[in-house]
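We modelled the chain as a single entity of 392 amino acids. Its sequence is:
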Amino acid sequence: MRILIYCQHVWGVGHLFRIREICRELASHDLVLVTGGPRVNVPLPDHVRQFHLPTLQADTSGKLFSDDGRPAKQIWPERIDQLIDLFRREAPDRFLIELYPLGRTAFRRELDPILTALQEGRLPPCRVYCSVRDILVEKSDPEAYTQRVQATLNRWFDALLVHADPTIIRLDETFPNMAGINIPVVYTGYVAPPPTFMEERTAFRRNIGLAADDKLVVVSAGGGKSGYPLLETVLATQALLADRMRLKVAMFTGPFLDARRFEALETAAGPEVMVRRFASDFKSWLASADLSISMAGYNTCMNLLTARLPALVWPFNGDREQPLRAARLAEQGWLSTLTAADLDPARLAVRIQTVLASPPRPRAPVDLDGAGRTARYIEAYSQPQSGWRGGT
């Protein structure tokens, strides 16, 4: 079966990592992953072919621009033509769209022509699914947003796949009227990477030269556009703790951190601190750590749940997504949250020492089979008839 997956990251990289885990579970199929955000060196499974549209990314105001400085209005025609040509050439059996129409609204100008052509029979028929995370951000006009999402899903999609555990959070907590969605809404569980086993942890710690009494703190900031205050504070905190414990810090800034800020972190880092933008073996670093300090994006939190290590998270407060996720997972015993007041080296030092000295907290179970369940759902249905697609 040929599956075309559309994933556009314009700010962070969690969307791309989540889709990669779903791709792993679809290993017996021919996959084409369509991307178009800033290029990131993320290894993909061997059975995945990547097709990269002309790049668009977002600035701090959300405005889209290209990597060569051209405005988005000059890029859209190129992307639309390339996407239609790709769809005709590949003739997929399944089309999985990440987030749209619940988000990525700007990209409707390249997706709606594909969806319209499928409905009208001008492209080979295929089933269409929306893949969405657990929490949606606030909208300026919730009523208009809700009506548009419902109409788009009901008209063009076969199912809405929600990558969440409904015992932790349900989509209707951030989408006001689920009753107006007439297609199946399927909770897949959270999409998380496979676990790392103890022998792998032991071998990795040995390979990176950690002594038995070394404490490894892994610090990360997602894509890197929002986490600099946290990274800066951790460096100062490590210096305070250097004479109190054997503390090693592995800091991963994210690929999109401003170059000057990255250089500032490298300059300030002491001999016990490693600063990198990104690591393909990040999962091994995290699984080998004694503590994680991070933000609270979807992908970061799933890594924490898989690694099952103590964690302090500083949620990005630009919208409700990370604060809500962090609060729910804290209630379940999986992590502890940091506030703005904790971004003080002395306060953070106390928090770090307290967590490292505390016994493991009891944790409520969380469904982490989202990638496998998503793959099984996509595989379960036969090829639809041409023309209109319903929700059955």
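As a brief sanity check on the tokenised model: The chain has twelve helices and 15 strands. Residues 215 and 245 are 8 Å apart (CA to CA).
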